[in-house]
Design brief:
The protein contains 11 helices and 11 strands. With about 475 residues, the chain is an alpha+beta fold. It has a domain of about 230 residues. A 5-stranded antiparallel sheet has the order 9-4-6-5-10, sandwiched between helices. Strands 1, 2, 3 and 11 form a 4-stranded antiparallel sheet that branches. Helix 1 packs across helix 2, helix 4 packs antiparallel against helix 8 and helix 5 packs across helix 9. The longest helix has 30 residues. About 30% of the residues are buried. It comes from Streptomyces albidochromogenes. InterPro entries: RepSA, RepSA_streptomyces.
Length: about 475
């Protein structure tokens, strides 16, 4: 049995002092006193303090086919016979450390499409580009903070008032319309992009075929939930030459033309829904709150900077519907809501609407996506030629880490001679062996994650204070 350095009678007092419960503390002491604890810490640090790591068991052999030298690795020597790797979840509510990595990748992806880099030419900054926000229509009056200062209910709500975004009259609020709109928001965005290309061509005085030969519309976007539970989209939209960012945009392509085309396309785009069971036909469309802002200093415009846009998109790339107080996991049965008495009534009604509509719209999987209030699209998307890809960024990071590993083992860098073929052969066998932490491991991993974040924030502040450093490089 593991020896605890703390007497059992004192465990409760110590647990209260460190802000945890006795069971977690006892498990934490077990982990800390287990053989291989230092190696376990190293594994967790390598995952960035992942909150829900994936466990693998197996072995690998790395062979130099020219010299015959080889290196063998097996998880049999690891704590518990397992190797822990990061879960890679993008949601900050599920794994803050992996979400931070995802946000960083998203930031660099967006920035590459704004200022160049990662294989995108710097001249991309000269293209007409705007930051557009498209929202959902009204489904009924909600508590808000208007410019007048007072809501329709007569209250001047503070910014953190939980009533904000909730229905003034829940019995008359169109909850069915709200979740159906969320559910079809991806299709509505697709219709918008089709009309946008048509509107750009029309304003250039060209046919669609002729316009495609002169210009290409590119975008990168992120979805965000408003407090009322309706999703909306933020998008960087850019006009390039016919072959994308490598070619200059035509002379007729201006910010003003792009702005006008976006507004016209948003007004035209609709998604008609046929009658379904108890529910009548309806037409889904964008709301009237449409915002289009130039980015950077193009044509003497400086409304918003490239860095602020990149940071904004990266921030919301790691979120879901948390602003509404909804659950961050799928709901298997509607009765599960009874286990969450703190769930806001407005959010509960949206979830219940998804389940109520599910049988009438069986192909829309509304109950399956009820934890997302009906939304089933991707939170971040882009056109192929907007910039680099998340896969390319992850591949570059994996290559960099592989080079680090080779140096630690005394092996030569793979790129030390471009004319030399890679003679390394890797033979491996891996099996899934579980996921997550025990309560004590979770507490310790969270502590490691906090230390990593503190060191990262300190380094970022130091880098940001260097005037010669480009803002786009201060995400690491």
């Amino acid at each position: 049995m593991t020896h605890f350095p703390v007497a059992p009678a004192a465990v409760a007092d110590v647990a209260a002092a460190v802000g945890t419960d006795p069971i977690t503390l006892a498990d934490m002491l077990r982990v800390a006193n287990s053989p291989g604890f230092e190696r376990w810490q190293e594994q967790v640090r390598r995952t960035g303090g992942c909150a829900n790591p994936i466990h693998l068991s197996g072995h690998s052999r790395t062979v130099d086919t020219l010299t015959g030298e080889f290196f063998e690795y097996s998880t049999s020597s690891e704590p518990g016979g397992r190797l822990r790797i990061a879960c890679g979840n993008r949601r900050a509510s599920r794994c803050p450390s992996c979400a931070w990595t995802y946000a960083g990748d998203t930031y660099h992806l967006i920035m590459a499409g704004l200022v160049g880099g990662k294989g995108v030419p710097a001249t991309v900054a000269e293209r007409p580009r705007v930051f557009a926000t498209l929202t959902a229509p009204s489904f009924g009056p909600v508590h808000n903070r208007p410019d007048s200062g007072r809501c329709r209910c007569g209250t001047a709500h503070p910014e953190d008032d939980p009533a904000l975004g909730t229905a003034l009259d829940p019995e008359r609020y169109d909850y069915a319309g709200a979740v159906l709109w969320n559910n079809h928001a991806g299709a509505l965005w697709q219709r918008f992009t089709i009309y946008l290309r048509r509107e750009v061509a029309a304003r250039a005085g060209l046919t669609q075929v002729a316009c495609k030969a002169e210009a290409r519309v590119s975008f990168g976007k992120v979805a965000e939930f408003q407090k009322r539970g309706a999703v909306h989209f933020h998008a960087i939209i850019r006009i390039d030459g016919p072959d994308g960012p490598d070619t200059p945009s035509p002379a007729w392509a201006t910010v003003e033309l792009l702005d006008d085309a976006i507004r016209a396309a948003a007004a035209r785009a609709t998604v008609p829904l046929a009658p379904a069971g108890r529910f009548p036909a309806r037409t889904l469309r964008w709301g009237t709150q449409l915002d289009v802002q130039p980015i950077g200093a193009l044509e003497d415009q400086a409304d918003i900077t490239e860095r602020s846009v990149g940071a904004y998109v990266a921030k919301y790339a790691t979120k879901a519907a948390e602003t509404t107080g909804t659950l961050d996991r799928r709901i298997g049965e509607l009765s599960e809501l009874d286990l969450h008495p703190g769930l806001p009534d407005h959010t509960r009604r949206l979830i219940e609407a998804c389940w109520d509509l599910d049988a009438d719209y069986p192909d829309r999987l509304l109950a399956h996506w009820s934890h997302m209030l009906g939304f089933r699209g991707h939170f971040t998307t882009k056109t192929p030629r907007y910039s680099t890809t998340l896969g390319a960024l992850r591949g570059a990071r994996a290559d960099w880490r592989a080079q680090q590993e080779r140096r630690e083992r005394g092996l030569p860098d793979l790129d030390q001679d471009d004319d030399t073929e890679d003679t390394t052969l890797v033979l491996a066998h891996w099996e899934y062996a579980g996921q997550g932490h025990t309560p004590g491991e979770s507490w310790l991993a969270a502590s490691i994650a906090r230390n990593i974040k503190l060191n990262r924030d300190t380094a970022r502040e130091a880098l940001a204070s260097m005037p010669a450093l480009d803002d786009a490089e201060v995400w690491t």
